[in-house]
Amino acid sequence: MKILEFVSKFSDEQSCKEYFRDIRMKEGVVCKKCGCKKHYWLLSKWQFQCSKCNFRTTLKSGTVMENSRLPFRTWSLVMLFMTTTKKGISACELQRQIGHKRYMTVWSVMHRLRIVMGKRDDLYQLSDMIEFDEGYFEKQVPEHTKSNLKRGRGSERQVNVAVMAESTPLENLKSGKISNHCRFFKMKVLKSHMATEIESLIKDSLDSKAIVFFDKSTSYFNIENYVEGHLAVKSNKQTTIVMLKWVHIAISNAKRNFLGVYHKINGEYLQNYLDEFVYKLNRRYFKSIFERLVVASVYPYWQTNE
Ligand SMILES: [Zn+2]
Fold first, then answer.
1. What distance in angstroms lies between residue 35's CA and the mean position of ligand 1's atoms?
2. What is the 58 CA–ligand 1 centroid distance (Å)?
């Protein structure tokens, strides 16, 4: 959705509310109390009513907007700006654009949406051939502690992030040249340097039939149990460029993007920023990420099945 299109389609609060109601109806309302899937729309109350137990569900109930007093139009505007700006937008700039009084409100809405994006991508596992590498992201550190912190890889100034990319080698039939094409990505902050953390990450993120390429020895952890095969790509420059091409591109694009839009990121929130970056990257060919995000946002927490 383009900004002009949005302005004409969602000119007021009412049109936004109707849109959210229609999306919730289309996705299917499930009763929190009895699990029944049949509901009536109570026009006088603007609520869904369960046909079995009469329990009522408000439009925001169970969604990312639950307990938020912000208008639907504000939520929609934040979703619009987050999905239509290719590089993303800072809370400060967004606050200015939508003319909202409080910075913290805009900031927290954006983070709640980033969490929605992360949860949506967590529903899917990567499959086939996977590139796996780690990236080191600079984090914001308080000025007074700076001089005491060590520099360089894996230091206290940086956050270690595992990056995974589906990468399919394709051969050009004319030239015989092989190039890797990428599909979906995942980026996860690693909290420890423990093998068990990587093992459970691989178990959750990758299909058990996947084949994984690493840039280092995999001997320090046991992943045989979780994937079909794994290969350490020896740090020969050429093989790294081909075999781990997409994880490296994704890491450097994410770093450049964060630096340009948000400057230094507080380590505590890095996963949320990564979730937004990956959500948009994975949907780069989608026609309307805005609509997809609305669908993900209205998905109630008591519905776990997809
Ligand atoms: Zn019910």
1. 6
2. 13
Q: Which domain holds residue 106?
A: 3-122+288-297
Residue 153's pLDDT band (boundaries 50, 70, 90)? low
DSSP string, 229-298: EEEE--S-HHHHHHHTHHHHHHHHHHHHHHHHHTSSB-GGGHHHHHHHHHHHHHTTT-S-HHHHHHHHHT
Distance of CA 28 from the midpoint of ligand 1 (Å): 13
Q: Is the pLDDT at 218 greater than 70, yes or no?
A: no
- The yes-or-no verdict on residue 291 having pLDDT over 60 is yes
CATH (domain of 168) = 3.30.420
CA of 55 to the centre of ligand 1 (A): 5
pLDDT digits (tens, 9 = 90+) for 154-199: 567 889 999 999 998 787 888 888 777 899 999 999 998 788 899 9
Number of domains in the chain: 2
